[in-house]
Amino acid sequence: MTETESIAYDVVVLGAGPVGENVADRARAAGLSAAIVENELVGGECSYWACMPSKALLRPAIARADARRVPGLSGAVQGPLDAPAVLAHRDYYTSYWKDDGQVAWLDGIGADLHRGHGRLAGPRRVSVEGPDGELRFLTARHAVAVCTGTRALLPGLPGLAEVKPWTSREATSAHEVPDRLIVVGGGVVAVEMATAWQALGSRVTVLVRGHALLPRMEPFAGELVADALKEAGADVRTGTAVTGVTREGSTVVALTDTGDRIEADEILFATGRVPHTEDIGLDTVGLEPGSWLDVDDSLRVTGSEWLYAVGDVNHRALLTHQGKYQARIAGAAIAARAAGVPLLETDLWGAHAATADHAAAPQVVFTDPEAAAVGLSLAEAESAGLRVRAVDVDMSSVAGAGLYADGYRGKARMVVDINREIVVGLTLVGPGVGELIHSATVAVVGEVPVSRLWHAVPSYPTVSEVWLRLLEAYRDM
């Protein structure tokens, strides 16, 4: 291994996913020099193994389901999906797992890309081990930002490695449709991949250790998604833990604590994420390797003056859009501190505070039906000590919903802080609701009084008229 001299930058970023790219972009926009270090593909998990490929797989499934609920069209879309075409479209949206375009984007903003494994090597110092074995050092005048994200968590089952299970990466990049697929888990990755592969022709069995799907959302969200998966042909078993796995020839066998033996061609474990921090030199700056990184609202690591942790790695909100939001906040904070501008800790909704992580992080689950939520669930609001009232509306009561889909099924819940008379949370489940959640996000972030929301008139007849139904239900309680 050869060593080169150290190169100095204002900001050094570990990880060139969407979060790292945005930190580098904000640093460059502020006139700071920036280096970004990546040992895989520039664009990260979201571009190649998560957001983009998963939504490319799901879109045909959702479009077909929507079409089947439209009179006059339903009869034209009764056949199976063209799986090879769907997979080819997925490949297109991952740029065929090549990062030339994203590298060109980095060049365009003037950030230097260093290929290789980046590790902290003491305060404000990063070592990069290149693919050719060359070792170079980067120093940061103002900040190092850890944007290394997460990786799939696999359970410690004996023999699991020999089974070669799918994680989210294999589930979004597979090039053949398995005849039978076991999905272990009940969270977002589990239900989205169960939806996609069931629609593409797999016989899917979902095994959930807990008693509900989507346990972090309002209970009705998981219930409606589970019902739809069952109607589509999936076998959904809650209260079922996998106790062992083996591969017998080309067949995977899963054993459960309920005494079942389930056979499949592939098995996907979607059982959680862990921080990608086990080999990035955290010990050289007094931090525990493999740990989540605790940060303040400017995304600076607790106790440090120069180290930032942005995106999934800080465990605040494991969502790409929230990570990019954090990157904009971190970039602004780094630039302000570099210029000697004091940050006002009391400015909760200012340019240097990621307040939305606590109060208004939106999420869409792209199943059929879609589930979308922002802010606090009823249980979360009550646990936080807020005096709240929840109102529920059956989405079928909305005229626009009936036009959107014959026999529209869905539910909405609005959580109102009755002391301040503002909406602190909204959950929607139903076809197409993902496009409605931003209006709720604006209401929650803006702390718009319920009295003012009465004057935000939804267009008729659209599904967004659910807002009127929710406000009427709240008024009439």
UniProtKB/TrEMBL annotation:
InterPro entries: Class-I_Pyr_Nuc-Dis_Oxidored, FAD/NAD-bd_sf, FAD/NAD-binding_dom, FAD/NAD-linked_Rdtase_dimer_sf, Pyr_nuc-diS_OxRdtase, Pyr_nucl-diS_OxRdtase_dimer. It holds the Pfam family Pyr_redox_2. Residues 362-467 form the Pyridine nucleotide-disulphide oxidoreductase dimerisation domain. It comes from the Bacteria. Residues 9-321 form the FAD/NAD(P)-binding domain. Its EC number is 1.-.-.-. Transmembrane segments: none annotated. The keyword Metal-binding does not apply. Its cofactor is FAD. Signal peptide: none annotated. Keywords: FAD, Flavoprotein, NAD, Oxidoreductase. GO terms for molecular function: oxidoreductase activity. This is Dihydrolipoyl dehydrogenase family protein. It comes from Streptomyces kaempferi. The lineage of its organism: Bacteria, Bacillati, Actinomycetota, Actinomycetes, Kitasatosporales.
